[in-house]
Design brief:
The chain is an all-alpha fold. It contains 17 helices and no strands. Helix 3 crosses helix 4 (74-83). The relative contact order is 0.17. It holds the Pfam family ADP_ribosyl_GH. Its cofactor is Mg(2+).
Length: 302
C-alpha cells in the first residue's frame, strides 16, 4: 500500500466514524425535546432534520486537523475549535468562555489549565469528539491513545478527561482494526490495557465485569450515564454499550439512548466507535435526516 493510499484509507475510516458520531449526537439530542420523549420508549424516530451539537462540531475540527497535518497539532486544533465555535451548539459555559478568549487572542495553555481552580475540566468533552481519531489510527491503537491524550489538553486538562479521551480513541481504533472488530470482552480488555490507572479505568473494569448484563438501565445506574457530564460518569457506560453492539448501529443507539443521561454525548461516543469499522454504519435514512457536516470541513474531505 502506498503512502497516499494509506492516508486515504485513514481518512475514509475517520469519516465513517464521524458520520456515526454525528448521527448519534444529532438523533440523541432530539430526545431532550419533551414532545419526543415518548418516542424513545417506542424506539421510534422523531421527524427530521436532526441538528447536531458541539460534539460533532468539535469532532469535525479533529478530523480537519488530522487531514491537514497527519497528526494532532495542538495549536491548530485549538484554533479550529475557536474559529468554528458556534455558541448555540450546546457547549458548556466554561468551554464557551475559553473558546471565545482563544478567538480573541488568549493562550489556550493558560486558559485550559486555569479552569476549575487550576484542576482543569474533567468533563466528557474531549471524549465525545475523539472517535474519528481512533478510527484514523486503526493500525496503531497505542498511537491512537497518545494522540488522543495530546488532543484533550486545549480544552480539558484534568487527568480523568484526558484518560476518557484516550479510552474512546482506543476503543475506536480497536473496533476499526483491519482484521474486523474484536469480541466485546477483547475490546474492553484492550482499552483497559491502553489507559492508565484512573477513575475512568476503574469504571471500565466494572463495565468489563457487566458485559453479560442485558439491561442498560441497570448498568448505567452502576457506571453512570453522563448525567454529571464528567468523563468517568460517561465513558465506561458508553464503551460498555458500544462493545456489546459492534456491527449493529441501531441496537447500539437505542440501548444507549434509553438509559438516559447525557444522551447526545453517550450516543455520539457509541456511534463513533461502532461506525469506525465500517460494518456498523448508521442506517442510510438516519444519515439522511441528520444535518450535513459544516461547509468549512469540505476542503478536508475526499
Amino acid at each position: 500500500m502506498t503512502a497516499d493510499s494509506a492516508s486515504a484509507r485513514r481518512l475514509e475510516r475517520a469519516l465513517a466514524s464521524l458520520r456515526g458520531l454525528s448521527v448519534g449526537d444529532a438523533l440523541g439530542s432530539q430526545f431532550f425535546v419533551p414532545a419526543n420523549y415518548p418516542l424513545l420508549k417506542q424506539r421510534a424516530l422523531p421527524p427530521g432534520p436532526w441538528q447536531w451539537t458541539d460534539d460533532t462540531e468539535m469532532a469535525c475540527s479533529v478530523l480537519a486537523v488530522l487531514s491537514a497535518h497527519g497528526r494532532v497539532d495542538q495549536d491548530a486544533l485549538a484554533r479550529s475549535f475557536a474559529e468554528h465555535h458556534d455558541f448555540d451548539r450546546g457547549y458548556g459555559p466554561a468551554v464557551n468562555r475559553l473558546l471565545r478568549l482563544v478567538r480573541e487572542g488568549g493562550d489556550w495553555r493558560e486558559l485550559s489549565s486555569a479552569l476549575f481552580q487550576g484542576q482543569g475540566s474533567w468533563g466528557n468533552g474531549s471524549a465525545m469528539r475523539i472517535a474519528p481519531l481512533g478510527a484514523w489510527y486503526a493500525d496503531d491503537p497505542e498511537q491512537a491513545t497518545h494522540q488522543a491524550e495530546i488532543s484533550s489538553y486545549p480544552t480539558h486538562q484534568h487527568r480523568e478527561a484526558v484518560v476518557g479521551a484516550m479510552a474512546v480513541a482506543a476503543a475506536a481504533s480497536l473496533a476499526a482494526a483491519p482484521g474486523g472488530p474484536p469480541s466485546p470482552e477483547d475490546l474492553l480488555d484492550g482499552v483497559i490495557t491502553l489507559v492508565p490507572r484512573s477513575a475512568v479505568g476503574a469504571g471500565l473494569r466494572r463495565a468489563r465485569d457487566m458485559l453479560d448484563y442485558q439491561d442498560a438501565g441497570t448498568v448505567a445506574a452502576v457506571l453512570g450515564n453522563g448525567r454529571r457530564t464528567s468523563a468517568h460518569d460517561t465513558v465506561p457506560f458508553a464503551l460498555w454499550s458500544a462493545a456489546r453492539s459492534l456491527g449493529d448501529y441501531e441496537q447500539a443507539f437505542w440501548a444507549t439512548a434509553q438509559a438516559g443521561g447525557d444522551v447526545d454525548t453517550t450516543c455520539a461516543i457509541v456511534g463513533g466507535v461502532v461506525a469506525s469499522g465500517g460494518a456498523g454504519a448508521p442506517p442510510a435514512d438516519w444519515l439522511a435526516r441528520t444535518e450535513e457536516p459544516p461547509a468549512w470541513l469540505t476542503p478536508f474531505l475526499p
